[in-house]
Amino acid sequence: MAEIVIRNTNERITGEENVREFLNNQEVVYEHWNMEKLPAALQENFKLSDDDKKRILDIFDVEIRDLAARRGYKIWDVITLSESTPNIEDLLKKFEEVHTHSEDEIRAIVGGKGIFIIKGSDDVGYFNVELEPGDVISVPENTPHFFTLMENKQIIAVRLFIEENGWVATPVADPQFQ
Ligand SMILES: [Fe+2]
Q1: Residue 178 falls inside a structural domain
Q2: Given this model, what pLDDT does residue 169 score?
C-alpha cells in the first residue's frame, strides 16, 4: 500500500484510508489492483520479454479496460526499469526533473517500487508517494511532479495514455521545490 511523505515537514502518512483521503484531497487518483492475479515469476522479473509484457497486460485486461472506459485512455503498455536497463543512471537523472504534461500520468505498479514526487496544495507543498505493487496512481495534468526509483532500483509498471504525444514533458524550474 502506498505511503506519503510531506517533504516540508517529513510527516509520514500511512494506512490505506489516510493515504486515500490525503491523495483525494490533492486530486490525485489512487486505486488498487489485486496482485494475487500476477504469477510471482512475472512480478520479480525485471527483464521482461515482449511476450511477458503482453501476458501482464492480458492478466490485468479487465482493470485496464475499466480505467480506460472511465478516464479516456486509448493505449497502454508495460515498462520495466532496473540496474540491467542500459544507461539507467542517465535515465534516472533525466527523470528526476520537475515537469508537467498536458495529460495526466497514470501508472499501475505491478512489480518493484517507485516514488512520485508531486506538488500539492500551497499548505502542503511537495510530497512523495512511495508506491508498491498493486498501487495505481494518476498525477493530474499540468501538476509539477517527477518519478524515480527507490533504493532497489527495480520497477514494472503499466502505463496508460489518451494519446501518444499527450505526455511530452515540459520542464518546470520551481523555486518552491525541495
Ligand atoms: Fe511525468
Answers
A1: no
A2: 87
What confidence tier does 95 reach under pLDDT thresholds 50, 70, 90?
A: confident
Question: Concatenated DSSP letters for the chain?
Answer: --EEEETTT--EE-SHHHHHHHHHHTT-EEEE--GGGS-HHHHT-SS--HHHHHHHHHHTHHHHHHHHHHH---EEEEEEE-TTSTTHHHHHHHHTS-EE-SS-EEEEEEEE-EEEEEE--TTT-EEEEEE-TTEEEEEPTT--EEEEE-TT--EEEEEEESSTTTT--EE---TT--
Q: Which CATH number does the domain housing residue 18 bear?
A: 2.60.120.10
pTM for this model (two decimals)? 0.93
The alpha carbon of 96 and the centre of ligand 1 are apart by a number of angstroms equal to: 10
**What residue numbers bound the domain in which 138 lies?**
3-171
Rounded distance from Cα 47 to ligand 1 centre (Å): 23
